[in-house]
Design brief:
402 residues, alpha/beta, Molybdenum Cofactor Biosythetic Enzyme, Chain A, Molybdopterin biosynthesis moeA protein, domain 3, 4 domains, 6-stranded mixed beta sheet
């Protein structure tokens, strides 16, 4: 069996970043990956402006009790007059600073009567002025190639006038479930059968990474059915995920069928629990990742081994989110020959303390309820006894699945 870290790195490097690009309207670019580095086109703010509703003054004109005539009222979107000495201009948040003004007095810090403004709280020079370029300077690098665009990145690009952005073509993923015991949800189920949860689960997981699910197909446990499924699915996808049929049982036929189709097997079996029966192959230059059939095992393997590969295939900068540390909070102890990944909840323990990691009571690979409950996967090192109070690494599923 391959050790977990080597398997994770091998899978992350099993595909090439994309080359096909397209222009995407900025309002549709959420979740897309930038295909080139983008630079600022202008200073932000583009001019000095007021950060408050208030009055623009020359700081040198301030004196306790002195009333300043209100020269003009200037709203955001209007051009102010040049401020005359000894006067004030009424401004609102976002209003341009008048030429000659250097300070804004909040409206709450003064009183206006008969078109005269009297300051009641002494200001400091430069108060409440947003300076040109204090956020972004023209020609600054905004975002590097490989950035996944979220709301913050889109706001930044839109503020620079980008109406459309160059992005990589979405990654196309096909999913192949296997097993004579499975029937789709919504169809009649015999006593010896179970509803397929792996197909819908993986489709949702792939979609959450902003990849495009091209097909979800099911094959029976026969060589002919599997060969037909591979032949049908491979031409239209960039990555094929299979579920089940990759262990060593009489009907675990995925591995031999892959090899019979010319698949180059790069990895088989990983020293992790859950999730030992994992395979990686390439057919027609495309990666095929074979996941174990138990839903929890498939979920864990996808989360930790497949998501880095997907990020690579999407062209993202870094395929690996951060790995955190927390304190195991449990009366149980753990000591496995393989790396074990516990489904846990993360509990905040206050400032300055590592979070607590509470394992789900049942850690069996068939306990699907735990996937709804867990927020992270805690890593228990192989061949090491770990108990409550010990510090362990954990993978926050919000980061690893997004």
């Amino acid at each position: 069996m391959l050790d977990f870290d080597t398997a994770q790195l091998t899978l992350a490097q099993a595909g090439q970043p994309p080359t096909a690009t397209e222009l995407c309207p900025i309002h549709q670019a959420g979740g897309r990956v930038l295909a080139q580095t983008l630079f600022a086109t202008l200073d932000l703010p583009p001019a000095d402006n007021s950060a408050m509703d208030g009055y623009a003054i020359r700081f040198a004109d301030y004196a306790p009790g002195r009333a300043l005539p209100v020269q003009q009222r200037c709203y955001a979107g209007q051009m102010p007059e040049a401020l005359q000495p000894g006067q004030a201009i009424r401004l609102f948040t976002g209003s341009l600073m008048p030429a000659g003004a250097d300070t804004v007095v909040m409206q709450e810090n003064g009183q206006e009567a008969n078109n005269q403004f009297t300051i009641t709280v002494p200001p400091a020079q430069g108060d409440h002025v947003r300076l040109r370029g204090e956020d972004v300077r023209a020609d600054d690098q905004l975002l590097p190639m490989g950035t996944r665009l979220g709301p913050g990145q889109i706001a930044l690009l839109a503020s620079q006038g980008y109406a459309e952005v160059p992005v990589f073509r979405p990654l196309r993923v096909s999913i192949l479930t296997t097993g004579d015991e499975l029937v789709p949800a919504g169809q009649p189920r015999a006593e010896h059968q179970i509803h397929d949860s792996n197909g819908p689960m993986l489709a949702a997981l792939v979609g959450a990474l902003d990849a495009r699910v091209i097909a979800v197909h099911h094959a029976c446990d026969t060589t002919e059915s599997l060969e037909q499924a591979f032949t049908t699915l491979l031409p239209d996808c960039d990555l094929l995920l299979t579920v089940g049929g990759v262990s060593v049982g009489d009907k675990d036929l995925v591995k031999p069928v892959l090899e019979s189709l010319g698949g180059q097997l790069d990895l088989w079996k990983v020293a992790m629990k859950p999730g030992k029966p994992v395979a990686l192959a390439h057919i027609q230059g495309k990666p095929v990742v074979c996941l174990p059939g138990n839903p929890v095992s498939a979920f864990v393997v996808y989360s930790l081994l497949v998501t880095p590969l997907i990020r690579t295939l999407q062209g993202r900068i870094d395929p690996f989110p951060s790995v955190m540390h927390g304190i195991l909070d449990t009366p149980a102890s753990f000591n496995e020959k393989r790396e074990e990944f516990l489904r846990v909840q993360i509990h905040d323990q206050g400032a300055g303390s590592l979070p607590g990691l509470v394992p789900y009571a049942q850690q069996g690979s068939n306990i699907i309820r735990s996937l709804d409950w867990a927020g992270a996967l805690a890593r228990i090192p192989a061949g090491t006894r770990v108990a409550g109070g010990d510090v362990v690494r954990y993978y926050d599923l919000k980061a690893w699945l997004g």
